[in-house]
Amino acid sequence: MAFIIETERIALRKFTLTDAPAVLEFNSNEDVVRYTGEKAIQSLEEAKEIIVGTWFSDYQTYGYGRYAAVYKPENKVIGFAGLKYESEIGMTDIGYRFLPKYWGKGLATEISKAILDYGFNKLKLKRIIGIAMPENKASANVLEKIGLQYYKTDGFLNDGGAYLWYEGFAPGKKT
Question: Which end of the chain, N or C, is less packed with Cβ atoms under 10 Å?
Fold first, then answer.
C-alpha cells in the first residue's frame, strides 16, 4: 500500500483490516490511552470496529484521517498519526498515538511537522488545531515544537475536562 506521508523514520498509510492486531496492541495499552479520553479496547473486534467505523469512514467522508504509523526501521505499525475532522466543532485536529517503546525519540514531532505540511499544502486546509490534556506535557510540547500556538483552555466534546487548545494557520491564511 502506498505511503501518504513519509519522513526519515515514519511512514503513514491508510489502515487496513489486517492492522487490527497492531490497533489492539496500541489501543489496549493503558499508558497509550491515558490522555485520550478513551477507554482501552479489549478485543480484535473492537480494533476492527475502530478501523472500519472511524478511520475508513473518515477517509471516505473527508479524504483524510488518522493513518497507520509504520516505524520504518522495523517495518512495524506502532500507532497512528494524522488529521481528523472533528464535525462537532467544525475543525481539523492533528493527533498521534504511539506505543510507549517509541516515546521520547522525537517521532511525534518528526511526523507531525510533515502532517502539518500535508494538511496546509496538499489538502489546502487553512487552520489545524491540536488539543492536549494539561497533564500531557509531552503532547503539549510537541504541539508547540511543530509551531502551533496555544490559544485557550476549554472543554472538548462536553466531557467535562479542561484541555489546552493550540492552532496553526496555513501561511498567509490567519483569520
Answer: C
